[in-house]
Amino acid sequence: MLRQQLNDALKAAMKAQDKRRVSTLRLILAALKDRDIAARSGDNGDGISETDILGMLQTMIRQRQDSTEQFKQGGRKDLADKEQEEIAVIQDFLPDQLDEGEVGEACREVVAELEAGGLKDMGRVMGELKSRYTGRMDFSKASAAVKELLS
After folding, report:
1. What pLDDT digit, counting tens, does each position of 60-101 carry?
2. pLDDT, tens digit, for every residue of 8-38?
3. DSSP string spanning 57-69?
4. What predicted TM-score, i.e. pTM, was given to this entire model?
5. 62, exposed or middle or buried, with CB in 10 Å at 0-12, 13-18, 19+?
6. Which of 73, 85, 92, 112 holds its CA 20 to 30 A away from the CA of 45?
7. Alpha-carbon torsion 36, 41, 45, 49, what sign?
């Protein structure tokens, strides 16, 4: 479903002659194709799952946020703005993100369910959060919240 949305969005952007959106969607589809090829070589003929696609999109956003910071520090506002525009396009394909309060609540809930008692359980908690909230949660913020809960 997400694959089809990406392809349809590319066609629409091409018809509208929206160069930024076209280039960003092509980047997304190229990354998706690379991951599909890698997955097929690992006996997965269908390519990557919807959950993996959401994770890939989150990674792409995180990379662009890092680049934006670097460009701002380097005095390249034009490049930082370009990265922000790409982030906006990518976010169109992600489900609504949880706010900080919802992230904290989800972390407390999983910690309680797994009866996690210390930092040694952090991997289990983060794994469970990723399985439940891929595409909806910023896991760097969740990691900080879980670490605080477990220490």
Report:
1. 998 999 999 999 999 999 999 999 999 999 999 988 888 888
2. 999 999 999 999 999 999 999 999 999 988 8
3. HHHHHHHHHHHHH
4. 0.75
5. middle
6. 92
7. negative
